[in-house]
Write a structure and sequence with these properties.
The protein is an alpha+beta fold. It has one domain. It is built from nine helices and nine strands. β7 and β8 form a beta hairpin. It binds protoporphyrin IX containing FE (HEM). The site of protoporphyrin IX containing FE (HEM) has 28 residues, from β5, α7, β8 and α8.
């Protein structure tokens, strides 16, 4: 599972629904098949029966993440704590075509051909058990002009991901990995939100209005109260007129763990564009990882929905939640403990 790694350059998120008759045993067969596929694709080898084996490349960092939607647990039992579809927020304009799903595949790579190939193989192998219900394609640039890794920017131009817990730290471990006893120990959950960004009205703002909406600088991602990207936010600081420098409704204030009883999440965005004829929709495939959706993500979401300055330029049109089983080792398969 590629939770700790940076967002891939190119990715697809595909949700599938189980076809009628896919019971626990059948789901186990699919997970064995997918585990073999994942072993091959992430090592740059074709899958068994691959119809385009030359498209499997070894130097493109293919990653594959698999998740189970809430309905799977009506077949298997043992549902992880807090794994329920999110309630509809007042600012949401959800389109059913971008919502829900019984399984998710999140496939990333350095090159889009490899992503399309891996998705094609895994969706084909799933056909007797599950069929796609939505597909989202996204991209992210986590490399600076000097070739070194950087946080990356969304299509508003904001540095996005600075406030994340850092992989390898106790903070990260507590935020992301479940400590529930049983099959889900060491697993996590994934929220996928498809968020439309209104670039036309955003572009009408001045730079300082754009910066106030988040509470961070566009140039470096630094808090408006600091100089470097990873400086701590000073949420008390006021300007000469007595106004809070990081505004009351600034996104970074309202989502900060210190104003949310310590609640944290781990976010990894993918930018998207969706063209219909001459018109273009732009947005963010917002991906959030946490041990417990109801305990960590939902209170944050509700708070942002009520007061976030960014709401004026963003509209969520898709939403889905999944449990990601712990990673598997050679000789075992994905979800083995749940499904056998
Ligand atoms: C289109 C929608 C969104 C955009 C453009 C956006 C953008 C940003 C930006 C630019 C930052 C500051 C830099 C950073 O720390 O990464 C940030 C921080 C953050 N956002 Fe969002 N965000 C969006 C939606 C959400 C949603 C839906 C949630 C959760 C429900 C969320 C939770 C957070 C959190 C937890 C932080 C870190 C705060 C901190 O600890 O400093 N964001 N976001």
């Amino acid at each position: 599972m590629a939770v700790e790694t940076a967002s891939p350059k190119h990715a697809e998120v595909v949700a599938l629904d189980l076809v009628e008759g896919t019971d626990k045993a059948a789901l186990g067969r699919l997970m064995r098949l997918w585990s073999t596929d994942i072993g091959a694709l992430t090592a740059g080898r074709p899958t068994p029966g691959d119809t385009a084996p030359e498209l499997a490349l070894g130097n493109v960092a293919v990653t594959v993440t698999v998740g189970f939607g809430p309905k799977v647990f009506t077949v298997t039992g043992k549902r992880p704590r807090g794994l329920d579809e999110l309630p509809v927020m007042s600012h949401d304009r959800l389109q059913p075509a971008w919502c829900g799903g019984d399984l998710v595949l999140l496939i990333g790579a350095d090159d889009p051909v490899s992503v399309v190939h891996a998705v094609r193989r895994m969706v084909a192998d799933a056909a007797p058990f599950a069929r796609p219900v939505w597909r989202q394609t996204g991209f992210w640039n986590g490399t600076g002009s000097d070739g070194k890794p950087v946080t990356g920017r969304n299509l508003f131009g904001q540095v996005d991901g600075s406030g994340n817990p850092v992989p390898g730290t106790p903070e990260f471990e507590q935020t992301v990995w479940s400590d529930e006893p049983g099959w889900f120990a060491g697993g996590t959950t994934l929220v996928v939100r498809r968020i439309k960004l209104n670039l036309d009205t955003w572009d009408e703002l001045t730079r300082s209005e754009q910066e106030r909406a988040v509470g961070r600088k566009l140039s470096t991602g630094a808090p408006l109260t600091g100089v470097a990207e990873h400086d701590e936010l000073d949420l008390e600081k006021r300007d000469a007129d007595g106004r809070l420098v990081i505004a009351e409704n600034a996104h970074a204030r309202l989502s900060h763990h210190s104003t949310n009883d310590g609640r944290r999440i781990f976010r990894k965005g993918l930018n998207y564009v969706h063209d219909t004829g001459a018109s273009r929709e732009s947005g963010l495939i917002f991906l959030s990882y946490q041990a417990d959706i109801a305990g960590q993500f939902l209170p944050l979401l509700a708070r942002l929905n009520a007061a976030d300055a960014l709401n004026e330029w963003t509209t969520t049109i898709g939403s889905a939640v999944f449990a990601l089983p712990p990673g598997f080792q050679p000789g075992t398969w994905l979800g083995q403990e749940l499904l056998s």
